[in-house]
Amino acid sequence: MPRSHVKVFVRTRPTARPYEGFRVHKDGETVTVNLPKEESSGLINNQLESLTFKARSALIRLTAAFDGVLENVSQDAVYGAAGAAAVDAVLSGYNATVFCYGQTGAGKTFTMCGDGRNYTHRGVIPRALHQIFREIDMRPDKTYRVAVSYLEIHNEALYDLLAESPGTSSEALAIMDEAAAGGGCNVRGLTQEFVASEEEALAQFFAGEQARSTAPHALNALSSRSHALFSVALEMRTSEDAAERAVVCAGGVSKLTLVDLAGSERTKKTNASGAAMREAACINKSLSFLEQVVNALARRDAHVPFRQTKLTAALKDALGGNCVTVMVANLWPEAVHLEECVSTLRFASRVRSLETDASVNESADPALLLRRYERQVRELKQELAMRDMLSGRAHVSYDDLSEAEQRELRELVGRYFAGQAGLDELPTDSLKRIRETYRAMRAIATAGGGALGASPAAQLQQAEGRGGPGAGAEEAGLVGDLDPGSQRGFILGSAPLGARPPGSPAAAATATGGGGGGGWGTGRRPASGRVGGASGERPLSVGTGAGATADAAGGVGQLGGTQQLAGAVAADAPPLRLDFNALFLKWKAGSGEGRRLAAAVRERGRALAELKASVKDAAARVNAAKAAIDALVAAGLAAPGDEGAVEHLRAAKASYRAEFDRLRELRGGLAPATDALAAVKAQQLEAFEAWAAAQGLPGGAGGAAGRIQAFHGAAAAAGAGGSDEEDFEELDPAETFERLQMAKLLQTDPAGDSSAFHAARKRTVAGGGAAAARGTLKASPVPR
Ligand SMILES: Nc1ncnc2c1ncn2[C@@H]1O[C@H](COP(=O)(O)OP(=O)(O)OP(=O)(O)O)[C@@H](O)[C@H]1O
């Protein structure tokens, strides 16, 4: 997600005495407040670009635009405008924060938490939990872990609302800014409850609500005396590569933070005194620090005082960090609250000018990264093997050399130095083997010739028997000696001063006239000719063409030769191509392992196809049950008071739930069935490769080439050979349809949606008295 403006919505509390000077424009995004001139004194802030004030005769007109003005709208509509997109962002791996701001009694808690006793009036938090778990259910191809936490900031102290004793401020709680480590703001020591369902998550939320600090005052019978931050941490992995990819950030996971701020209050209006007065002072102070932070951010100040108060430290990401942020400005549009309305609108305008920088949280887990890199290495090796096969090169292994292969290579180099093996016998087909050759040469050269009974120089001279013009240097700096300067390797010789890059006339002249070609130049800066075919400052390349022998121009060690390693193919070697598709089909149709594995693939494919068909049927039955409920509801409305109809409706709802549970259960089996099929397919490929290698086919079935050709080829050639895959691959559109159906159904489900809400309420409030979210009684709200 690109750098984005923070979205701001204004929500007005319904009132019997609306202020007549408050008007929402037709665009649904702009508000105008007309203020009597005398009342507006001190309100005008000329620095505020997004609020325009126009003086009329007796009025000041104030206009401001937002992302939406929600006047007289349902909780559902508020969530649709201000909550759903933030939750979507979190499900896609971003952090998001939704916070409510406004004066006391303006409806912040109603917006964020809702009325716990009334399902229709549930707020953003329960709706977000519903959306999260509904989406999780809809994405069987992904694995999720969800954890919730609930932090309260009361009188500048931190409280863990999900702790066993939530009324006790814990010294262990601390807001940590982990931005430097790639994370965000986290609260160390805060309880994180892992939840597996909407009901469990809601039970935690209700339990935390019970522990929140509230008190009555003149403007609100249930006024929140604290700021409350409910967080949902979400870790997502995709099943197809669940082992190696997780969308998580260094601090944990992508996070949704839902904030119900305490309201600013004029104590003369709330009649606060004693503890309530102190609370009000604390609340107002922290809100004024919040305003300072927002102002500093809006001005792009170098220093932003986030650490002045716990609230701003906790909201740092939401205000300017890695976060998708939504603010709901709650207004109480009555004449008596005009001043508060204007100051809320002013603050909201400032917030709207802020920018955050949201980016997907990806894993920084070293183990996961390692698996990803291993996969990339595997794929690159397959890519190389594919190129080799397509260019007709013989099979090249890009794996590390085994001990036996290293030993064999050392012996070969020894024989080469002893003059018993030619240069063309030294390997030139892969960098790994070339490097290993160098290493073996260095080992011999630095071993003092013990093995061969001669000094390194003598061995080298012997090896260079055919000697180039640079041969015979007795000075320091022989080829094969450790370079005393760099310690990085042995000396290959230096290019003559007049050397030119290949292609230049001088280089061509040198190349043809240098004599000797091939073999290792051993001297340093010979008077004339070239050293090992040196031709300027080009990097080392290796001659690998057919017939590239020690005697041919451009032998091993040639500097600046024209042949490139990757494309080193003899010009006259015909490209070797095998029809792996045909081979694969033949192998599957034959006897033995090929046949057995093909049958296994077919069987698991069929099982998956059957499962998908069952899911489709189950979805159809759920839809039918839903249609039956709709019909009964419509009939009930037409004939109210019909006891028989009520009974039918109850039965229809029960059947709907049963069908729905069955559908959910079936869908749960899809991921394992898909994995099982993928596993047997992988096994089949490995076996095919091994078989092809055993047949001595060039390229051992071509590594990736074999895989890719065989797999895609088999599907393409299905008409002839019978594909194992076509039966179930074709079901994808049906699956898509079924998913859409389920999404639609879950959105409109009248019977199922509220069950988690009511069950969680029962568990915590009705059933547990002071909340029993985890099966243990939590402490009652503690007066503070
Ligand atoms: N949109 C609304 N529709 C119906 N009732 C509302 C609405 N907004 C607020 N209320 C009611 O107004 C009262 C005060 O609301 P609420 O407690 O949410 O205010 P608040 O801003 O959170 O106040 P405080 O800062 O004191 O906690 C509650 O009884 C609430 O039910």
UniProtKB/TrEMBL annotation:
GO terms for cellular component: microtubule. It comes from the Eukaryota. Residues 453-464, 493-511 have a biased composition (Low complexity). ATP binds at G102, Q103, T104, G105, A106, G107, K108, T109. InterPro entries: Kinesin-like_fam, Kinesin_motor_CS, Kinesin_motor_dom, Kinesin_motor_dom_sf, P-loop_NTPase. PANTHER family: CENTROMERE PROTEIN E, KINESIN HEAVY CHAIN ISOFORM X1. Belongs to the TRAFAC class myosin-kinesin ATPase superfamily. Kinesin family. This is Kinesin-like protein. It comes from Raphidocelis subcapitata.
